[in-house]
């Protein structure tokens, strides 16, 4: 049988394959095989939508709230809904026998291809092949081609492709399924169909266009109705091409959006499937050119890493001015699509060094909600801006009151009351963005203001304790959510220290270099010199919990908690909570949910020496159960830095394959976005040793034995760097249109490199 789509499929190292249809794996495959372009996210359902499938079509930033505890990412009508019926029997998994089945996600070009052979109850076989993509070139297009061939005798098919309105959000906990939209208009036009829906709370308009073309031999025709008949001889093939377009509008005017959709669809239909596909592929080629990581000697790791990067690339959005990324990307409804610190700390760095405009958009998302953050601070009696723990469209706090615990029981959520570190995390990301891009325009328009308003918040949040002569931050939850309502969480306090330091530094810089803009901003936000003086007073007096023996106490009283040590970590890097400890009592013990002190060692690399890093890493490792997907890759990065490469590699392996091995059992609800991002960080910041020390780019690699070479590109302060590292040397070059040089550190030595020249820096013996 001819393979219709093999010509488009990349080589095996770019493919994630499914070789048989397994009903149980269906929802997790839908997340793994998700397609997207930063605007649209589309779960990788099978086109016939088998029973129990969970179609998901999401638009970045499109949230609504009706009958839900809190606002959530809306699951929109499903365009991928193809019914093919022959002799009264429907082609589909679950309705016919499957004699052969293979699906492949082509990560290189964002294509989902499929080949299935069905057999009906009369033992007649049908060949089914499909290719689908969400255009990376044109954000409004989803395109699909399906080729069907009767293999044993002539057959007549009824083909129906109806935009599926029965879709609902799954509804976690006790809420049940929820529909967030109602139909506004349906109509037919010469080249296709039109459907508009409106969200129930905000009245956001979403308009779909669809055109379907049937090709048989040399003839081709538009399917003018929702259902169409196709007659085929034995071994004759028909290809059904469907092009969908999706537009949104918050001006809520159906009359205006309809002609846009119609015109767009006509244009796309005229362009034809092949050209749309070609442009989509070219866009993906450009994306990978800028961001691929090659790992010689370890094809398995290279592929897993690419899988993580693929899922990041399909949710990065450039160009519309703002957009952030939820904890489960746009591949599922987990965490209701909300945005956490995952965005700034775990996901943003990948974009910062590959597609800085996406990173900027993520920060603009926060900037445009700075006023809301100021309202949150005020409502709690603080100054400045306090970002919500969970955020969605408006920037209000959207953490639900209840959630399911690991054992399935319902628990009350307190993170929104106390997990305040997110505010410092946002400021940290703004600072990283500035250092890596030197984008002063962004800083003058938004960044300085964000850093000052967050510093302001912390100055009002910290309280001076004259007894110990320290500023304390009480009643918080650190990244380790097992311990609620603690005082002086080391991670939070250190990030506050960073936030205030950054604010003082930026204040000086702005005043000196941009006096006009400084005057404008200080007038706008009422910033006074005395206030900056207060930040300066707080900085050296923040309680940081570093003890004389070099250990950092995670929070006041942590060392007095019940001691539990986890064993056998070599065999079980992600250990279970010991059976003797009940989940409800976990807070009474020293068990840690996820990297907390270790997170701090990772984010502030120049604040601690290697000895302190080693001591704390091993201490907390024996107490950490990694009940969050955010933890493993951070451990990989620090283990690499302190020279335990074997352990680093073990944690890297866990993180890189997390959603492929279904480690946390909830990939059904979407990909673990933070883990995707921090897996890239473990490879680049950890093994390749690329870090920023004192605003200088530094490369100090420690590769796993199996990796013969790692090579990648980086965007750094407007330059494109190409880096290749093996066990004996670092090769660096950068390109610049200006005649220029850069100062970077390699193997701890500061080097001056000129543009367009390749440099080889050999590793010193024993280095
Ligand atoms: C983690 C948080 C994280 C959230 C969303 C929680 O389980 O503890 O750190 O932000 O999941 O990924």
Q: Descriptors for this entry?
A:
alpha+beta; Beta-galactosidase, Chain A, domain 5; globular; ten-stranded antiparallel sheet
Provide a quick synopsis of the model.
With 767 residues, the chain is of the alpha+beta class.
SSE layout and pairing:
Blueprint: E1 15-18, H1 26-32, E2 35-36, E3 40-42, E4 57-59, E5 63-64, E6 72-73, E7 82-86, E8 89-90, E9 97-106, E10 111-119, E11 125-134, E12 141-150, E13 155-161, E14 181-189, E15 192-199, E16 205-216, E17 219-222, E18 227-232, E19 238-249, H2 254-271, H3 273-291, E20 293-296, H4 299-313, H5 341-354, H6 356-367, H7 370-379, E21 402-404, E22 410-412, H8 415-418, H9 421-437, H10 440-461, E23 463-465, E24 470-472, H11 490-513, H12 515-525, H13 529-538, H14 597-603, H15 610-621, H16 632-641, H17 645-656, H18 673-687, E25 690-693, E26 696-699, E27 709-716, E28 719-726, E29 729-735, E30 741-746, E31 749-754, E32 759-762
Parallel strand pairs: 26-30
Antiparallel strand pairs: 1-9, 2-3, 3-4, 5-6, 7-8, 7-13, 9-10, 10-11, 11-12, 12-19, 13-18, 14-15, 15-16, 16-17, 16-19, 20-27, 21-22, 23-24, 25-26, 27-28, 28-29, 29-32, 30-31
Helix pairs in contact: 4-18, 5-6, 5-9, 5-18, 6-9, 6-10, 9-10, 9-11, 10-11, 11-12, 11-13, 14-16, 15-16, 16-17, 16-18, 17-18
């Amino acid at each position: 049988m001819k393979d219709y789509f093999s010509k488009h499929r990349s080589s095996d190292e770019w493919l994630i394959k499914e070789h048989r249809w397994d009903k149980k794996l269906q929802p997790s495959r839908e997340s793994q095989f998700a397609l997207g372009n930063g605007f649209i996210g589309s779960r990788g359902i099978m086109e016939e939508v088998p029973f129990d499938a969970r179609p998901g079509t999401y638009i970045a930033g499109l949230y609504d709230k009706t009958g839900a505890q809190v606002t959530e990412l809306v699951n929109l009508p499903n365009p991928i809904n193809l019914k093919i019926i022959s002799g009264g029997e429907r082609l589909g998994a679950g309705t016919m026998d499957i004699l052969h089945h293979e699906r492949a996600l082509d990560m290189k070009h964002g294509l989902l291809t499929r080949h299935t052979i069905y057999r009906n109850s009369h033992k007649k076989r049908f060949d089914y092949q499909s290719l689908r993509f969400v255009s990376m070139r044109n954000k409004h297009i989803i395109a699909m081609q399906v080729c069907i061939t009767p293999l044993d005798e002539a057959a007549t098919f009824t083909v129906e492709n109806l935009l599926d309105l029965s879709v609902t959000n799954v509804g976690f906990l006790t809420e049940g399924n929820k529909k967030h939209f109602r139909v506004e208009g349906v109509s037919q036009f010469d080249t296709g169909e039109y459907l508009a829906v409106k969200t129930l709370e905000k009245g956001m308009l979403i308009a779909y266009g669809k055109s379907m073309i049937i090709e048989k031999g040399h003839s081709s025709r538009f399917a003018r109705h929702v259902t169409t008949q196709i007659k085929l001889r034995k071994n004759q093939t028909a290809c059904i091409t469907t092009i969908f377009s999706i537009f949104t509008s918050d001006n809520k005017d159906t009359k205006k959006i309809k002609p846009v959709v119609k015109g767009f669809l006509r244009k796309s239909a005229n362009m034809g499937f092949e050209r749309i596909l070609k442009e989509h592929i070219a866009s993906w080629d450009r994306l990978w050119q800028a961001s691929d990581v090659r790992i010689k000697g370890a094809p398995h790791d290279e592929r897993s890493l690419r899988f993580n990067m693929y899922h990041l690339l399909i949710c990065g959005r450039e160009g519309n001015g703002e957009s952030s990324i939820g904890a489960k990307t746009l591949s599922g409804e987990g965490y209701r699509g909300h945005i956490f610190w995952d965005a700034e700390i775990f996901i943003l760095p990948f974009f910062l060094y590959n597609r800085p405009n996406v990173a900027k958009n993520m920060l603009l998302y926060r900037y445009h909600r700075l006023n809301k953050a100021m309202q949150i601070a005020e409502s709690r009696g603080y100054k400045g801006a306090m970002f919500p723990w969970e955020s969605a469209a408006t920037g209000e706090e959207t953490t639900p009151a209840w959630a399911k615990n690991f054992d399935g029981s319902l628990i009350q959520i307190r993170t929104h009351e106390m997990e305040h570190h997110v505010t410092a995390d946002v400021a940290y990301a703004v600072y990283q963005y500035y250092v890596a891009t030197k984008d002063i325009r962004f800083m003058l328009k938004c960044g300085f203001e964000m850093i000052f308003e967050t510093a302001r918040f912390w100055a009002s949040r910290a309280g001076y304790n004259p007894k110990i002569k320290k500023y304390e931050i009480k009643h918080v939850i650190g990244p380790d959510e097992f311990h609620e309502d603690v005082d002086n969480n080391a991670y939070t306090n250190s990030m506050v220290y960073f936030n205030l330091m950054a604010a003082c530094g930026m204040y000086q810089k702005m005043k000196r270099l941009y006096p006009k803009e400084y005057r404008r901003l200080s007038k706008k936000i009422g910033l006074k010199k005395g206030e900056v003086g207060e930040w300066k007073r707080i900085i050296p007096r923040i309680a940081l919990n570093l003890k004389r023996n070099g250990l950092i106490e995670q929070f006041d009283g942590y060392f007095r908690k019940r001691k539990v040590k986890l064993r056998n970590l070599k065999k079980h890097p992600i250990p279970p909570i010991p059976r003797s400890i009940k989940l409800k009592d976990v807070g009474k013990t020293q068990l840690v949910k996820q990297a907390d002190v270790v997170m701090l060692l990772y984010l502030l690399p120049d604040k601690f020496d290697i000895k302190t890093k080693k001591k704390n890493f091993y201490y907390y490792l024996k107490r950490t159960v990694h009940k969050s997907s955010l933890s493993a890759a951070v451990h990989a990065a620090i283990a690499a830095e302190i020279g335990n490469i074997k352990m680093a590699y073990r944690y890297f392996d866990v993180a890189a394959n997390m959603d492929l091995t279904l480690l946390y059992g909830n990939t059904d609800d979407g990909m673990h976005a933070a883990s995707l991002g921090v897996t890239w960080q473990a490879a680049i910041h950890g093994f390749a040793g690329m870090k920023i020390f004192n605003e200088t780019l530094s490369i100090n690699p420690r590769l796993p034995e199996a990796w013969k070479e790692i090579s990648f590109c980086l965007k750094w302060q407007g330059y494109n760097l190409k880096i290749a590292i093996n066990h004996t040397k670092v090769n660096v070059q950068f390109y610049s249109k200006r005649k220029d040089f850069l100062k970077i550190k390699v193997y701890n030595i500061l080097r001056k490199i000129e543009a367009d020249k390749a440099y080889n820096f050999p590793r010193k013996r024993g280095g």
